[in-house]
TrEMBL record:
InterPro entries: BP-dependent_transpt_permease, MetI-like, MetI-like_sf, OppC_N
Origin organism lineage: Archaea, Methanobacteriati, Methanobacteriota, Stenosarchaea group, Halobacteria
Family: Belongs to the binding-protein-dependent transport system permease family.
Keyword Cell membrane applies: yes
UniProt-annotated location(s): Cell membrane
Listed transmembrane segments: 24-47, 86-105, 112-135, 155-183, 277-297
Protein name: Peptide ABC transporter permease
Cellular compartments per GO CC: plasma membrane
Biological process according to GO: transmembrane transport
Amino acid sequence: MTGRAADRDASAVSPRARRALRRFLTNPLALVGTVVLGVVTCCALAPDVVAPHDPEWVAYVGTGDGRLTLAQSRSLPHPPAFGDPFFAPLGTTASGHGVFTELVYGARTALLVGLAAALLSSLVGVPLGLCSGYYGGWVDEAIQRVVDVLYGVPFLPFVIVLVAIRGASTTTVVLAIAATSWLNNCVVVRGTTLSLVRRTYVDAARAAGLPAHRIVARHVLPDVLPVAAVLLVQDAATAILAHATLAYLGLADVTTASWGVLLQQVQATGHVFDAPWWLLPPGLAIASLVAAFYYVGHAVEDVTGAD
């Protein structure tokens, strides 16, 4: 490609990018999702700045001899307090830890699980979907038969077996979620690829003698990437919800701060009905983050579909 042709392509791409960004920024749901993701990201990257206490902080400790009296322990979980006898804007758990502090430190786990599982799903599902759709024949048959078999594997028993083998760690949960969520990526990308390989510019590239990997990289992958981006965002939301569910069931690492563990502790200690300041915040945080990912995903889909 000559320099003049490259300049023409760059001048054509730039207005499209500006129009796409303008449409994204004028979408109210996209802005809401972006703000929520920004807040959660700040909490995940700098929890010690956002949280009022460190994770080891316990209510009442430091106001006396360092030990809780019988009356103090019976007052836990404590409703929100703003300086008397301690500062806990969302109250405390039954063990005296601040709910807001636990919420802030749990944001890192939520984002880590969501993004790690989504990236692993995309790294497996997108290349396999491209190969399946482009090459067809026995390659397509082999990949799709594996997908069919794995679709029949129930998620929860699979996680239980994996936890029994590897232990209830965050890595185990991420691997379990990614091992089942890449299937949808593969199927959707395959369908998109099948429609793209019938285009005239792909036939022209084949006739020009370009190798298959260059055709896929230059003529198929650019049109698949918007679909893959939408799937990535949706997979992140699904992974966050799945991790919270597994943590609530006791199948995640209970020693790591997470929103699902907070909900599991409410249920385990029997304070579901008498400690709403402990029950509602993690549930609302999970719902808000999942909704934010879906809002951004729908906005990306609208923007790329309009192009």
